[in-house]
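Prompt: Have a read of the protein record below and flag anything odd:
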Amino acid sequence: MILDKIIKARHMTKTVSATKKLLSERGESNGASMASDVIENYKTLDDDQKNQYFHYLAEKFNPSPTDVLNAAQMYAEAPNADNLVWLMKVAEAPRQELLRRLNRAPGGTSMIIDMRRQLLKALHKKPELKAVDADMQHLLNSWFNPGFLKMHQVDWKSPADILEKIIHHEAVHEIDGWDDLRRRLQPDRRCFAFFHPQLSEEPLIFVEVALLPDIPASITPLVDKKSASVEPHQFKCAIFYSISNCQPGLRGVSMGNFLIKRVAESLKKEFPTLKTFSTLSPIPGFIEWLSSGVGLGSADLKPAIIEKYQQSLNILDLKKISWSERIQAGWHPDTCSPKEREALESLCAIYLMHYSPKRGGNSVAKFHLGNGAKLHRINWAGDLSKKGIKQSAGLMVNYLYDLEKVEDNHERFVNGEVIFSRAVSQLI
């Protein structure tokens, strides 16, 4: 036990020492080898020690408050380019230069992603590490600019390790083994993965597509591994039914700008008859939002919407019977009352139209609306799985991509406007 503690302490000491050397002037000239030394020593740390290392980065590699204050005063007195550049320089945490030097080493990019994955696990209990996370995310946003990403189609002939990663990382609709994957790679399906040059064998994001005659309202036929294939002459709609991030350490990094548009343009070249590009998307967080009592978070809504929101909440009366209690009692979309259905559909429309753009709003909605999609249709009983009923009362949503309007829709969403169809607005 004592020997283990000594060995662990030695690992931490060597990691800290290697870090100091990397940030020295000598480290700048011998960066690659010294960065590799940091990486190898970091790998010897256990999870608790890695968190200690993050604390070390948080405490010892902050900008100098005095230098920042002096530079800010200089810029305030003389707001010229030289003073601005100097302010930007002294305000940057030395951690960022450390990460840049680590990134230059073989395996450095993968190492930083892994560091952030570990950091994110600890962050909710250790808010003092937020600055370290912010520095990592800032740099990763630069390094993983969508322009750097390469799109490749994944099919049954793709390398086995890539196929295994698709199975492992599917986060929306679980892939039940190789037979299930085989169905999702049939001629009426497509799967596209995005790669970064520094991680050429590691998919970052993958998109699953179904080629269909119409926009579907239910996920069941799409994920049923025994479902019949659709003939090519019937292909009218490309349905994006699953988008999964394979790298937890890249959470929050904006790689997806117009990602769907790139996939859609590739499909359009292959199948000129395709007219419609849409998703069939889950609504994670909807029931959690209803149950939390967070509300709409805004006073600038029309009185009629606020009134509809309150009326619908009263019909559900989640304070009297919680959602989990309802499920335990056998609640199901097929057997619920018409009033409950109307209330849930109205609340879902309000949630997606008015709450999702806000901080803490629905992440899936933000992704698609931010990519330039339109909120097209809310589908009752779209996902009857236990997960679907628990997170969204079985509701699913279609986001419609009009390739000629995605840039305009994107700009409008950035400015706080959700583009929606008449069918959705009629639910309120």
Summary: The chain has a mean pLDDT of 92. The chain is about 50% helix and 10% strand. The beta strands are 150-154, 189-195, 205-212, 237-245, 276-279, 374-379, 396-401.
